[in-house]
Specification:
heterodimer; A: 404 residues; alpha/beta; D-Maltodextrin-Binding Protein, domain 2; 12 strands; 47% helix; globular; B: 294 residues; MetI-like fold; two-stranded antiparallel sheet; 14 helices; 2 strands; 73% helix
Chain lengths: 404, 294
């Protein structure tokens, strides 16, 4: 009896000794922070939860402020020091894919049963380029909601619902401008916020930035009409449009000298903290047309140089899960089910936001998007400074077509 | 003797290696990159010789960048040196609270560049800015002027901000210089009946000639390379009205992922700076010879 027990104990001991503990891997994850949301605290909690669920994976999180993120990431990639997994702006996906620095995720997504149905269509589209899936949508938002100062609109007798049409918005702008106040917060500095607002007006009139073949579509009648309309709003905007950013308009809106500003839903936490009595409508379009916003947001991608691709994929699946996605983003979760819960708890007008997100369109999926965007900024500045919109669009198209 | 020479090489070599690796390697790399068509999306370098140079030299953007860089550098250097010298003269007088004033004048210079730029962005704001508020109160303008949003005023406004930020550097340099002007020469000039202006032009300025030349060259180099002020104020806009070499290089390389063209702009920048450094070295050598001769 004693011998078998000893044998059993010895066998058990040998089994323990020969089974090496599974190797712990450290995953390097980079993200950026856009709002003062204390996001990093929530991310830390989520990472702890992930590490608990996956004891063999440690996550090293690097959170970079948004203005520095692109430069830091690019430098890391060029220096061969890319993270394993990172959030990539929707507008970078095509360039990173073309450069061959990120992994196609079709096979992994297919095997895991991840489909477009889980995410907002525009967000899913933004992760696809050249017939492949390069990222999993992480968070989204859309430019731009029209936020308005309720008191100023009431005083001027403006019905907020009228802002949903171009005619109503222009009329409200006219009524609300004067006595040191301004109606509409147009901005046209060198920045991506200038481009996304311009795009939303073009999209809402049925126009496009690029055609399917990559050629410029800004000279189409719909696009030029949108540019002409934007130009007509200039008299109702604060002075200095060409160097003004969305942040400058926010300051004027918060101090009561601007009646309406264009921002994505991301603006709500700031407004909720203020004493301002505000409301919003989801975009604006010509009468009879649906307002189409411009998609913004981030996708999660795995770098080709990643040492732990399987662990990275596990982490992506975790972050985009319905029960996790809402607690690790400062925009809106890209996972529709998570977004519904998130919006219901954290944003005013969740249904309007959801509808606007469903209708929104992504910016052109071109590897040379950043150059296209800079050309669009010049176009916006030309239009806001009074140049003929048709001629300005022709100049922009000549520059865009010369890229290809 | 031979051993001593080896020791010299041994002690000097770490510095030489560091300078070579940290300064000359990237610089040579930039020159090589400028001969290749390479971007983030097309990372395989293709040798194109001088074709990027030809493209850039004939582009409107380049002409604008050169023009802006010349106006920016000349404007900032001239005003910074004049204002800096004027403050140095003032602080060289026996005034009450001189020590405190000498400390306070340094404030703009010790402020981080980005903070100073944000401060001036607020000052120039058409709606909320202090400058427009003054102009309106003094009835010099009926409404706020969008200083940074007009192509005609953006660069001059940026120059004013940069002069404010940089003049204390010149003040400190010139103040040190003023304290080394031969007191006997000034006394002799006073005995000869020379007034203050005469003393300034006939005694002080000639005595500080080399120092002024050195400071002008140094501030030219610093201003030509000055990135953060313009980037925070205007990002090179509106249109291209304030785009200078550093902002254009950043825009191309990091804003549009066009490394080859960014490198080519970088080479032009290096050429200008090399010329300025050669001038600086020549002036220094002349000054050293003069002091050795004296």
């Amino acid at each position: 009896m004693m011998i078998p027990r000893i044998l059993l104990a010895a066998t058990a001991l040998m089994a323990v000794a020969t089974t090496a503990p599974a190797q712990t891997v450290t995953l390097r994850f980079w993200d950026n922070q856009q709002a003062e949301s204390g996001l990093s605290i929530y991310q830390k909690e989520a990472v702890q939860r992930f590490e608990k669920e996956n004891p063999n994976i440690k996550v090293d999180v690097t959170t970079v402020p948004y203005p520095e993120y692109q430069q830091r990431l690019l430098t890391a990639v060029q220096g061969g020091n890319a993270p394993d997994v990172a959030t990539l702006d929707q507008i970078w996906i095509a360039a990173f894919a073309k450069a061959g620095v990120i992994e196609p995720l079709d096979a992994r997504a297919g095997a895991a049963g991840i489909t477009s149905a889980t995410f907002f269509k525009g967000a899913w589209d933004s992760a696809n380029y050249d017939g492949h899936l390069w990222g999993i949508p992480f968070n989204v938002d859309a430019w731009s909601f029209t936020y308005y100062n309720k008191r100023l609109l009431q005083q001027a007798g403006v019905d907020p619902q009228s802002l949903l049409t171009w005619k109503g918005l222009a009329a409200a702008g006219k009524k609300l401008t004067g006595n040191g106040r301004f109606g509409i917060g147009l901005f046209g500095h060198k920045g991506e916020d200038t481009t996304v607002v311009l795009d939303s007006f073009i999209f809402s009139n049925g126009g496009k930035v690029l055609n399917a073949d990559g050629s410029c579509a800004l000279t189409s009648p719909q696009s030029v009409a949108a540019l002409r309309y934007l130009q007509s709003l200039v008299p109702y905007a604060p002075r200095g449009i060409l160097n003004a950013a969305s942040g400058d308009m926010r300051q004027l809106f918060l101090n009561g000298s601007l009646a309406m500003e264009f921002w994505p839903a991301l603006e709500q936490p700031t407004l909720l903290k203020s004493k301002l009595d505000w409301g919003f409508v989801a975009g604006t379009a010509p009468a009879g047309k649906t307002p189409v916003g411009t998609y913004g947001g981030w996708n999660l991608a795995i770098f080709k140089s990643a040492a732990h691709k399987d662990a990275a994929w596990k982490f992506i699946r975790f972050l985009t899960r319905t029960d996790v996605n809402g607690s690790v983003v400062d925009l809106i979760p890209a996972n529709i089910a998570a977004a519904k819960t998130f919006l219901a708890g954290k944003r005013r007008g969740p249904r309007r936001i959801l509808k606007y997100l469903e209708d929104a369109a992504p910016r052109p999926l071109s590897p040379r998007y950043l150059e296209v965007s800079n050309i669009e900024v010049t176009l916006a500045q030309d239009v806001y400074s009074g140049k003929d919109p048709g001629a300005a669009a022709s100049t922009a198209c000549a520059a865009i077509d010369a890229l290809h | 003797m031979k051993r001593g020479r080896w020791l010299v090489f041994l002690f000097v070599s770490p510095a030489v290696i560091l300078v070579g690796v940290l300064m000359y390697y990237p610089m040579i790399g930039t020159v090589i990159d400028s001969l290749y068509a390479t971007s983030f999306i097309d990372p395989t370098p293709k040798f194109v010789g001088l074709s990027i140079y030809r493209e850039i030299l004939t582009s409107i953007d380049f002409a604008e960048v050169v023009r802006n860089s010349c106006i920016w550098t000349a404007g900032v250097v001239l005003l910074q040196n004049v204002v800096g010298f004027a403050f140095a003269l003032l602080l060289d007088q026996r005034l009450p609270g001189r020590a405190l004033m000498r400390s306070l004048v340094l404030l703009p210079w010790v402020l981080p560049g980005v903070v100073a730029a944000i401060l001036w962005r607020f000052m120039f704001d058409p709606q909320l800015g202090l400058i427009n508020s003054f102009l309106i109160r003094l009835h010099l303008s009926g409404q706020g002027i969008p200083w940074l949003a007009q192509t005609s005023t953006a660069l001059p406004a940026a120059i004013v901000a940069a002069v404010w930020k940089g003049f204390p550097f010149s003040t400190v340099v010139y103040l040190a210089g003023l304290q080394h002007v031969d007191a006997e020469q000034i006394e002799a000039a006073i005995i000869d009946g020379a007034g203050q202006l005469r003393r300034l032009f006939d005694v002080v300025l000639p005595a500080m000639r080399e120092l002024i030349a050195l400071n002008v060259i140094l501030t030219t180099i610093l201003t030509f390379n000055y990135f953060d002020m313009i980037w925070v104020l205007t990002r090179g806009g509106p249109e291209n009205a304030t785009n200078i070499f550093p902002t254009r290089i950043f825009e191309l390389a990091f804003g549009e992922f066009r490394f080859g063209e960014g490198a080519t702009y970088g080479v032009f920048s290096i050429l200008v700076l090399t010329l300025l450094l050669a001038l600086y070295a020549a002036i220094r050598r002349g000054a050293e010879r003069k002091s050795a001769g004296a």
